[in-house]
Amino acid sequence: MISKPYYLISQRKIPRLAIEEEHHAADIQLAFSAFQTYSLPGRFWRTLLRSAFSAGMSLLVSRKIPVRQLPLPPREDFEKIDTLLGNDTAYPVFQFPYNPERKKFSAFARREGKVYYLKCAFGPGSREELQQEIAALRRLSDVKFEKFMIPELVDSCISENIVAAYYEPLPVNTGQPKRWEKRFLEIWKELTEKTRRESAISEIKWIENLRSHPQWRSLLEDISAETLIISQNHGDFLPWNMRYAAKSWYLFDWEEAGDNAPFLYDPLHYFTVYETLVKKKSPHHIAGALTPFLKNCNYLGVNVADYVLLGLGFQFSNNRVLSKEVIFNMATAYKSAK
What ranges do the domains of the chain cover? Predict the structure, then answer.
């Protein structure tokens, strides 16, 4: 079990990153290559933090605490992770989510001269998300992609209190794209093409659930399609879940993934989340821009209006990035403008 002190970095008083006191230069590179922040002020803040640590001025931007004060699972549960990875494992870096209600963390684990990337969830919703990711990666393990790679899932464990998985980490010299670009379209199209199928709308559970919701039933009443093109979706198809190195692209963090999302869902999700969180646009403004954006993605020639409403309904039912109120307002504004 780990026992050495850590430097803890907080963002607006929320623990975000912990780096072992006796760290090496390589640990700094690992920590800040994985520390995701998508806004321009956030990226500037991350650069300042990295510079302070690299210059040996850690206490200027963090505080030193014993490991027992980190938001980790109880000792008896953490021992299950040690069993998974090996009791000689070192954990030089921990990363925590910005939302403290999501009981999970990620870490770099150094074992027998190799570095692995560990994800652990110990709250009900977070455990479900990580189980969803493990299931998606196993479904995709035999699919050969040419436009991108998925970090290899090495092993996992699921118990009553925790779910843990560890992966071979991404190269530390990877870059992070800032916005939608041609490569995004190529990656999404290949993922869709290699996993897509058709299903009768009447057989899709999440649509049935939406139609039991009075307001959504009204929004979906004009849907003309009887069958729906569905596929494996990433679920959080955004720049902060992609990395690139030379000619290699990586798509990771599959916690929101599913295998029955409507066609166009991943680009729709990208656009609604990016425009809301990064560009701070209103649901009404985003609704008006959806059709022009998705027109470039509609290589199958489907009825975009049907798939926008169904995609927003799927997002309302399954995704935790945007609030249900924002998504519903977007759907209402979109239907009103049709």
Answer: 6-167, 182-337
- How deeply is 24 buried, as exposed, middle or buried, from its count of CB atoms within 10 A (0-12, 13-18, 19+)? exposed
pLDDT in tens, 87-119: 889 999 999 998 888 899 999 999 888 999 999
Q: Distance between CA 207 and CA 227 in Å, rounded? A: 12
CA–CA separation, 185 vs 193, rounded Å? 12
Q: State how far the Cα of 56 lies from the Cα of 44, in Å rounded to an integer.
A: 19
Q: Which residues pair with 90 in a beta bridge?
A: 110
- The 10s digit of each residue's pLDDT in 199-217 is 999 899 999 999 999 899 9
Q: What is the mean pLDDT of residues 124-142?
A: 94
Helix/strand/coil percent split, the chain, to 5 = 45, 20, 35
> What CATH topology corresponds to 6-167?
Phosphorylase Kinase; domain 1 (3.30.200)
Of 218, 220, 306, the residue nearest 263 (C-alpha): 306
What is the number of other CB atoms lying within 10 angstroms of the CB of residue 239? 18
* Measured distance between the N- and C-terminal CA atoms of the chain, rounded to whole angstroms: 59
Rounded Cα distance between 133 and 165, Å, is: 9
